[in-house]
């Protein structure tokens, strides 16, 4: 009678949904059973178990959870024990390929983990992305759970799909106690992932000085590069971890830095960390250190200087610090000033001009022009244009060309054919996507030059613009 009553209750609760060949159970329904079973007597729970045996204990909900994974997630230890006692497999994973043991470790439940191991759970079971309970314990930072896993066969050298050991995970998540425990059980402090990242590199990324000290005390090498030529000191500088950086500076060799092809000054500037820049400068690092060719060529703009990183990131604070400390503004193939002008960074442009950046620099990789390059990037921005002109931009170069007065209009195809030659201003602005700007630009330029000649080509273009009467007046 009791068994029938339980079965009827299950049906009324819509726990079971049967289809011709597949039976599925809703998460809500199973959780409902799990919670009620937790309140009922032991005999009543067993009755429920027996009554529901027409569903196997490995059935999954629509969301892909099993009875056991749901019980573990809900933290119901007694229900987990009962399911295991009645044959539920501790190895069956949910739809995310997470085992009950991994979920118990994630919850940090020593009792649940112990129960599952006693029920046959395998500590080394590989889940999604080759992630194991050991990796999960390292991420969670639960020392007691890690001890339990190690006592039952946990492997300190097992790697996930990225080739990272539990020690690397503990370092990444700043769990010093777990680090010490794993090292005590033989973990390799100089283990490297396939991309070359060392455990110390991971620790530098998290910035925990205690973790870094523990690794160094047990022989971790701070001079191991990864495949991107990055050292732990670069990682600490990029992430802005001041204390970690202070530890790594005196123990990182100049040889290792030279072989890496770049300075931690680059990393700190790229990360935007002025306090780390200041520390590195105090320790004697060269503010004008240049990227080695094999590093520079990884960037499309072929950048070289630390200042370039700050400018390209739009970081006025680091730009100002670097310039005040003696950074040279014109060390890169694409000058920092051009980068700032193109990005419309007025404050940074002012800082660079105050530091004597060459306002008349050229970048010929795209357009080899007669006039200095900066004007190309601010034809629509009068404020930026005047900022350059007021600081010595050579406006007269915009009126230098070899055109005769009867020069016919240059077509866009002609423009393309003349790219191998130096391009005059009148040619540059005559294309369809710029020609509408010419009137206003020329009117401004004429304010900053003496008597100049307007070639026939430029005159023909200007005659079509509303500014032409004013230009005639200013030009005569």
TrEMBL record:
Keyword flag Signal: no
Stretches forming ANK repeats: 63-95, 129-161, 162-194, 195-227, 260-292, 302-334
Name used for this protein in its record: Ankyrin repeat and SOCS box protein 15 isoform X2
One Pfam family hit: Ank
Keywords for this protein: ANK repeat
Species this protein is from: Lates calcarifer
Gene that encodes it: asb15a
């Amino acid at each position: 009678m009791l068994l029938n009553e339980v079965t009827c209750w299950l049906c009324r609760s819509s726990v079971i949904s049967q289809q011709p060949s597949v039976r599925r159970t809703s998460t809500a329904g199973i959780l409902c059973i799990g919670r009620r079973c937790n309140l009922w007597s032991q005999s009543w729970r067993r009755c429920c178990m027996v009554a529901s045996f027409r569903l196997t204990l490995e059935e999954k909900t629509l969301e892909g959870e099993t009875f056991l994974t749901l019980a573990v997630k809900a933290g119901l230890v007694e229900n987990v024990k009962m399911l295991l006692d009645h044959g539920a497999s501790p190895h069956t994973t949910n739809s995310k390929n997470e085992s009950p043991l991994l979920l118990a470790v994630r919850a940090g439940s020593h009792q649940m983990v112990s129960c599952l191991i006693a029920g046959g759970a395998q500590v080394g079971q590989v889940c999604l992305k080759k992630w194991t309970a050991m990796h999960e314990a390292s991420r969670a930072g639960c020392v007691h759970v890690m001890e339990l896993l190690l006592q039952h066969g946990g492997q300190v050298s097992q790697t996930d799909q990225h080739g990272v050991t539990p020690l690397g995970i503990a370092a990444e998540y700043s769990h010093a106690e777990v680090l010490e425990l794993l090292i005590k059980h033989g973990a390799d402090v100089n283990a490297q992932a396939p991309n070359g990242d060392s455990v110390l590199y991971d620790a530098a990324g998290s910035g925990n000085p205690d973790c870094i000290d523990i690794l160094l005390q047990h022989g971790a090498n701070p001079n191991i590069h990864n495949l991107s030529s990055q050292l732990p000191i670069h990682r600490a500088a990029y992430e802005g971890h001041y204390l970690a950086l202070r530890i790594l500076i005196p123990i990182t060799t100049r040889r290792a830095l030279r072989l890496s092809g770049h300075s931690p000054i680059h990393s700190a500037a790229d990360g935007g960390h002025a306090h780390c820049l200041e520390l590195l400068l105090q320790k004697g690092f060269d503010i004008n250190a240049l990227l080695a060719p094999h590093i520079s060529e990884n960037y499309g703009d072929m950048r070289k200087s630390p200042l370039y990183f700050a400018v390209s990131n739009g970081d006025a604070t680091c730009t100002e610090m670097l310039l005040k400390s003696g950074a040279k503004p014109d060390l890169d193939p694409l000058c920092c000033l051009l980068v700032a002008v193109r990005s419309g960074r007025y404050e940074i442009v002012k800082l660079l001009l105050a530091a004597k950046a060459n306002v008349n620099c050229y970048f010929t990789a795209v357009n080899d022009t007669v006039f200095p390059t900066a004007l190309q990037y601010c034809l629509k921005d009068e404020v930026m244009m005047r900022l350059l002109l007021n600081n010595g931009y050579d406006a007269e170069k915009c009126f230098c060309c070899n055109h005769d007065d009867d020069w016919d209009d240059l077509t866009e195809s002609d423009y393309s054919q003349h790219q191998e030659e130096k391009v005059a201003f009148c040619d540059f602005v005559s294309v369809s996507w710029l020609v509408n700007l010419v009137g206003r630009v020329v009117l401004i330029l004429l304010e900053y030059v003496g008597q100049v000649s307007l070639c026939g080509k430029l005159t023909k273009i200007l005659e079509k613009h509303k500014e032409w009467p004013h230009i005639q007046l200013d030009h005569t």
